[in-house]
């Protein structure tokens, strides 16, 4: 038994010994595998660092991410009723995105190849453009350089200048073929682009055949793509076109007077941008957000393009202008001018403004110009804000209110004698109805407005200067400061200063000389026969009276909206609120004096009442007519003007018109007839007169 047990133990020991021997073998095998892997890694690292190291360093240092942007369609413009006035027309375009690194020769080749498939207009091709195209060829440039002294020592710009001069002087581009001329146009567009910027090589008129041909050969035309161009269209008719303004073409690029500002805002030189009036004023809203594409480049070649932001069309804007009413008022002014042009050869135009006196909203801005030499009449709605004229008696309401404010008359003590003003050493100054003194009469302030007494206003001016009129007196003691006092009174109503309308290019009017030597002109200023104003200023002035003293900023913008769908505006993101520029101080009794006078102008019973023509218009109108003595060269003329509001007891709308250059002593009522027609159109197109 003992022997058996010993042998058994030995057998067990042998088995354990075999198992222990296998462990080192396995560990050694693993060590070999790890060693081989590390060796392979070291070899690979050595290969990357020693053999390919320079290549990867070069690639890394020459890799970059650039940003390419593409314009989106501009926002739409709608009228006050939601009618679409200005939209976009899309057209197929041939575009060129300039690579990061491209030679003149490469662009030269692309331009020449592209002319095989498309045709472009060459009417704007200049000699400089031809010369630049010629030198785009490396072979041509090298030939020219051989004839330039010390070419190798000249700077790039100096050498190029001499190359251009040589090409010109030797007539090297005098005989370009029609196809080469087209290539020259294309080359210059490509050459003028920034790296990764996109220019339109052909923005409109691309035929289906041209599109197909270019599309089939894009691989041979690096940088050329088929894209979309946008241009403004006017489904609401041309009556709004002038007020809407213009957008520059890709060829025109950024306006020169705003170039640096727009470049600082991120525009490219060849971008389309609003260049006048509404398109310019609300460019930030209308332009939209560009599509952003991240371009990964390596060794100056585009490796990958990733659209980072899909872009957003411009916001839509809604105007205060009613399109139908605007068109009607424009036609009224055009027809009115045509009706009197035959007997009034010096009439330069006619203008009208219609506003809401409580908000400043402009319902219509209309006007026409007439070429005095040819008689041709053209639309000029913007003339209502930038053409100034001596307007005449329409300003007398402001003169009376200024006198009331300064205390030279009061609501209960404002009677003065209507009489010719006879000053020492000057001819008498009179009212239109009392040139001989046969119609002398006492007049209250409202009655003076009713009959449009000039001499009443002249006496107010003298009282403002601390003088009381007596026949034969001199104005030698009158201070020129009277000009400032009266103009300040007028300015508070908007006469003689910019109204603040949200359109560029507004005129402030014109002030006549106001030195001591001009003191007699202060009397002319008092009844509107000296300084000049715009028709818009007249509208703001009469609005201030109509609403009881609040001078409001006129505006054509009602609201801004997100870009909508199917020709409809999106949600409102901005609403224009009435903006009070200043308040004309006055008691209720003082305002009643002025308003009563303006009512009597149309409804008074004095035989010399000036606005009786509008007496029967419903709802009732209050206002003031104006006749100013003017000249065209040496020919005496008159401005016929008018300001008004209605209904008299609850003003909803104001109308101002001006017809400058009418024949002297005309009996025409063209100004009053135009006002009458405009009110009829307003109650038809914009607001119902029911209840007034």
From TrEMBL:
Residues 351-678 form the Penicillin-binding protein transpeptidase domain. Keywords: Cell membrane, Cell shape, Cell wall biogenesis/degradation, Membrane, Peptidoglycan synthesis, Transmembrane, Transmembrane helix. The keyword Cell membrane applies. GO terms for cellular component: plasma membrane. InterPro entries: Beta-lactam/transpept, Beta-lactam/transpept-like, PBP_dimer, PBP_dimer_sf, PCN-bd_Tpept. It holds the Pfam family Transpeptidase. This is Penicillin-binding protein. It comes from Ligilactobacillus aviarius. The lineage of its organism: Bacteria, Bacillati, Bacillota, Bacilli, Lactobacillales.
């Amino acid at each position: 038994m003992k022997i058996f047990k010993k042998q058994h133990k030995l057998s067990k020991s042998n088995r354990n010994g075999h198992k222990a021997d296998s462990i080192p073998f396995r560990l050694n095998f693993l060590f070999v595998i790890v060693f081989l892997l590390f060796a392979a890694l070291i070899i690979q690292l050595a290969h990357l660092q020693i053999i390919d190291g320079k290549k990867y360093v070069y690639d890394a240092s020459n890799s970059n991410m650039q940003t390419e942007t593409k314009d989106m369609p501009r926002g739409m413009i709608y009228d006050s009723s939601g009618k679409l006035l200005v939209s976009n027309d899309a057209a197929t375009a041939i575009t060129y995105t300039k690579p990061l690194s491209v030679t003149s020769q490469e662009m030269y080749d692309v331009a020449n190849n592209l002319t095989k498939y498309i045709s472009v207009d060459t009417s704007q091709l200049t000699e400089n453009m031809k010369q630049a195209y010629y030198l785009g060829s490396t072979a041509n440039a090298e030939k020219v350089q051989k004839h330039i002294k010390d070419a190798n020592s000249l700077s790039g710009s100096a050498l190029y200048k001499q190359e251009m001069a040589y090409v010109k002087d030797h007539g090297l581009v005098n005989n370009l073929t029609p196809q080469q001329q087209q290539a020259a146009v294309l080359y210059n567009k490509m050459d003028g682009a920034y790296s990764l910027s996109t220019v339109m090589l052909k923005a409109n008129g691309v035929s289906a055949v041209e599109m197909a041909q270019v599309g089939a050969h894009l691989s041979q035309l690096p940088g050329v793509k088929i894209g979309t161009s946008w241009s403004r269209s006017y489904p609401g008719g041309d009556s709004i076109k002038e007020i809407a303004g213009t957008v520059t073409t890709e060829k025109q690029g950024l306006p020169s007077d705003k170039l640096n500002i727009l470049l600082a805002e991120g525009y490219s030189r060849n971008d389309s941008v609003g260049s006048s009036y509404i398109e310019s004023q609300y460019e930030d809203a209308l332009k939209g957000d560009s599509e952003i594409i991240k371009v990964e480049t390596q060794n100056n070649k585009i490796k990958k393009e990733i659209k980072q932001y899909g872009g957003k069309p411009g916001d839509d804007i809604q105007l205060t202008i009613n399109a139908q009413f605007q068109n009607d008022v424009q036609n009224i002014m055009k027809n009115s001018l045509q009706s009197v042009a035959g007997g009034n050869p010096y009439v330069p135009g006619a203008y009208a403004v219609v506003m809401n006196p409580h908000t400043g909203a402009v319902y219509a801005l209309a006007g026409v110009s007439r070429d005095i030499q040819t008689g041709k009449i053209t639309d000029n709605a913007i003339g209502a804000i930038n053409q100034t004229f001596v307007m005449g008696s329409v300003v007398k309401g402001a003169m009376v209110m200024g006198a009331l404010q300064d205390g030279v008359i009061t609501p209960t003590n404002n009677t003065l004698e209507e009489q010719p003003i006879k000053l020492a050493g000057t001819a008498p100054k009179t009212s239109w109805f009392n040139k001989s003194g046969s119609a002398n009469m006492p007049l209250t302030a409202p009655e003076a407005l009713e009959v449009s007494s000039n001499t009443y206003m002249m006496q107010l001016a003298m009282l403002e200067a601390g003088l009381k009129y007596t026949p034969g007196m001199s104005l030698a003691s009158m201070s020129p400061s009277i000009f400032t006092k009266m103009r300040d009174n007028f300015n508070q109503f908007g006469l003689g200063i910019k109204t603040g309308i949200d359109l560029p290019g507004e005129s402030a009017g014109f002030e006549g000389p106001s030195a001591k030597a001009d003191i007699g002109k202060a009397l002319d200023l008092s009844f509107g026969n000296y300084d000049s104003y715009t028709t818009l200023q007249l509208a703001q002035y009469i609005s201030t009276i109509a609403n009881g003293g609040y001078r409001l900023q006129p505006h054509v913008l009602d609201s801004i909206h997100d870009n909508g769908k199917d020709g409809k505006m999106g949600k409102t993101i901005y609403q224009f609120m009435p903006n009070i520029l200043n308040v004309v101080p006055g008691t209720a009794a003082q305002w009643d004096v002025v308003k009563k006078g303006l009512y009597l102008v149309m409804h008074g019973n004095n035989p010399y009442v000036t606005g009786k023509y509008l007496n029967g218009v419903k709802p009732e109108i209050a206002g003031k007519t104006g006749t100013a003595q003017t000249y065209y060269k040496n020919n005496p003329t008159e401005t016929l003007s008018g300001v008004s509001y209605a209904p008299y007891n609850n003003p909803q709308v104001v109308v101002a018109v001006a017809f400058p250059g009418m024949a002297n002593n005309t009996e025409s009522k063209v100004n009053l007839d135009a006002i009458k027609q405009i009110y009829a159109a307003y109650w038809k197109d914009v607001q119902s007169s029911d209840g007034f």
